[in-house]
Design brief:
The protein is of the alpha/beta class and 93 residues long. It has a single domain, classed as Oxidized Rhodanese, domain 1. It contains 5 helices and 4 strands. Strands 2-1-3-4 form a 4-stranded parallel sheet, sandwiched between helices. Helix 1 packs across helix 5.
């Protein structure tokens, strides 16, 4: 399954790794804000969802880093969604 399908079906957890201030300026409805610097310490919380994880940020750089961190920590079903605006588009179209 690809990222677009996961988002259209609503079968993934969306984690926005931007800062709380960036997140409050606009985000994907239903997404969870876990800043990049907290990803490693909140791994148990992320795993508890039991769903594929799609990560997003402003441009895709921080979400790429977060995807790498999660993969190294045993979250096999995680994907870099890129910009939160792109993720939002796929969720709504």
């Amino acid at each position: 399954m690809n990222i677009e399908q996961l988002l259209k079906e609503g079968s993934a957890v969306i984690i926005d790794v931007r800062s709380p201030a960036e997140y409050s300026g606009g985000h994907v409805a239903g997404s969870i804000n876990i800043p990049l610097d907290e990803i490693a310490t909140r791994i148990d919380e992320i795993k508890q969802h039991g769903k594929p994880v799609v990560l997003c940020c402003a441009s895709g750089m921080r979400s790429a880093n977060a995807t790498s961190i999660l993969s190294r920590m045993g979250v096999a079903d995680c994907y870099n969604g890129g910009s939160w605006l792109d993720v939002n588009y796929y969720c709504n179209n």
